[in-house]
Amino acid sequence: MTILSIIIHKFKSVTRTKELYTYIIGFPLVFMIIYGSFTGFAYSKVEPIKIGFLNNDVPVKYTIGEKTYQTIFGEKFYNYLSCLKYEGTNTSVFNIVNISSREEAEQKTGKLEVAAVVEAPSNFSKNVINALKSITYLTLVGIISNEANNAYELGNYELASRYWAALTELSSFSNLTYKIKITIISDPTYSKATQTYELTWKYLINFVFREANEFTTYYANYLSQKYNITININSESFSSAMEQTFQVEFERIGGKEGLKESFTKMYFAVLVPGQIVQSIMLAAVSVLYMLHRELTSG
Q1: CATH topology of domain 46-261
Q2: Averaged confidence pLDDT in the chain
Q3: How far is residue 148's CA from residue 162's CA, in Å, rounded to a whole number?
Q4: 55 DSSP 8-state letter
Q5: Can you say how many angstroms the Cα of residue 29 is from the centroid of all Cα atoms in its chain?
Q6: SS3 for 229?
Q7: What are phi and psi of 95, to 5 degrees?
């Protein structure tokens, strides 16, 4: 009991020592500074991020006037990502490898052969084309309505009727629902997976913005020629029409089948507990060191 009492007394004296908190706070801080310095040096070189691309998308058909078109936006998104360069350099942002299945995706990400796998779902093209039509409608409806009203007020009823006819055809693009979604398969604790997740958000929106701009311009020209009217698209109306739903879904490898979690949720569920445990272990080592020093010093 005497020995136990001495140990308890020494432990209490250690926990009341200011030096203990210096170790508890100082050790992690020193490691963070050292790690941060090495990290900045290690990642100073601009190089492509190796990712996989799993394209489950199927073709979609759409009609403009009497012409029918067919495309696969999953392939177009793949080509778009392949051509991206870091600003001011000739270095590609991504080095993309084709992935054939979910099993291969989990295998390659599990072995860190790729930073992440971007998956385009089977309804990717369907949602993208609905998004393009919806954005086109939101962009043009106000412009055409204003032109029709102006022509009517000026007494040019024949021109106004042509604008109204164009507006009637445009209305086929109204009330379309869509949710553009891709999935990122990877380990949320891997730094390059985090980088891929952030970049994919930006590039997905840029891709849809570019496609919508092209589609809207093409459709506006089609209406102008068919109805002999003038449609001037302004950037403000086009940008406001872009405020719709985009989703990048993150799936961690080794999770339950059908598990859908946000990246932030997985980050705090996997990485943060590990960091907390690491801090506790460092603090415990500091306490043991201080306790050993107290006991040896008598």
Answers
A1: abc type-2 transporter like fold (3.40.1710)
A2: 80
A3: 8
A4: E
A5: 31
A6: coil
A7: -110, 105
DSSP annotation of 48: P
Q: Tell me if residue 15 falls in helix, strand or coil.
A: helix
- Helix, strand, or coil here: 124? helix
φ/ψ (deg, to 5) at 253: -70, 145
211 and 238 Cβ atoms separated by less than 8 Å:
no
Angle at 105 between CA 131 and CA 118, to 5 degrees: 25
Q: What is the pLDDT of residue 188?
A: 78
Q: Encode pLDDT of 137-188 as tens digits.
A: 989 999 999 999 999 999 999 999 999 999 999 999 998 888 899 999 988 7
Phi, psi angles (nearest 5°) of residue 48:
-65, 150
pLDDT at 41: 53
Beta bridge partners of 267: none
Domain ranges of the chain: 46-261, 263-298
**pTM as predicted:** 0.71
Query: Which residues touch 165 (CB under 8 Å, ≥6 apart)?
Result: 227
Helices assigned H by DSSP within the chain: 2-15, 18-42, 73-83, 102-110, 124-153, 157-170, 191-227, 235-240, 263-266, 272-296
Secondary structure (3-state) at 252: strand
Return the biggest CA–CA distance within the chain.
Answer: 107
